Each structure stands twice: as C-alpha cells, then as structure tokens.
Amino acid sequence: MKPITLKSVAEQAKVSIATVSKVVNGINKGISAETVARVQRIIRELNYRPNRSGRQLRTQRNYIVGMAIVDNSPTFLTDPYTTHLVAGLSNFLGNHNYGLLLHGIEPASFEKSFLLKESVVDAIC
Hints:
This protein folds into two domains: 6-50, 434 Repressor (Amino-terminal Domain) (Orthogonal Bundle), CATH 1.10.260.40; 60-124, no CATH class. The chain is elongated, with a radius of gyration of 20 Å. Strands 2-1-3 form a three-stranded parallel sheet, covered by helices on one side. The chain contains six helices and three strands; from the N terminus they run ααααβαβαβ. It has helices spanning 6-13, 17-24, 33-46, 52-59, 80-95, 114-117, and strands at residues 64-70, 99-105, 123-124. Helices cover 46% and strands 13% of the residues.
C-alpha cells in the first residue's frame, strides 16, 4: 500500500500541497473555512499522518523527552509514586505531541547514559 502523503491529500482535496501543509499545521489564514473543512475531511478519510522523520529533519528536534530513573532496582516501575509520575508526564507530553523515553539507570552510570551521549531526546528530566 502506498503511503499517504501531503501530495495525495492535495490531489483528493483538489488544492495545493502548500494548502494541505498549512491546514495540517493549523495555519488557516487566507484559506476559506470550506476548504479547511474539505482538507480535514480528506485527511480523516485517508488516515493521513504527518511524517515524523521529515518533521525531525526540518525542525532539528526529536519531539522526545527522556526521563532518567536513577534507581538500580529492576522493579523501579512497581513503585506507585514513580508509576503515577511517569503516567502523568507521558499524558502531558502526549497532549503536546511529544513522546517519553523512560530509561532506568544505576546512579554511578548516569554520566555514561546514552540519553546524555546521543542526541535521541530534546530534554532530560
């Protein structure tokens, strides 16, 4: 199956790729309400999802926040406080189109963590 792109949405909606891009990004200035509604309908019908990799290249962001749990216990997620904190942070980030990367780490190994050494996350908490 061929991936759904801005171009395929534009062809179905009979508008330019730029118009679809603006609607996807919530920049509707200068676009009629009828056109916005038509593009949004086609997006839903085709189940269009923006290309995350393309967005990452364009913005130089990963849209991922890393959470380092400094605890050497393999059962750190069984703690109700930790579970509640992780769930709350994940929900908050999800509402802002960010993901959460959870990383359990031993206290002595924090400086060696891939979260710090590699650019896989935009922020660490």
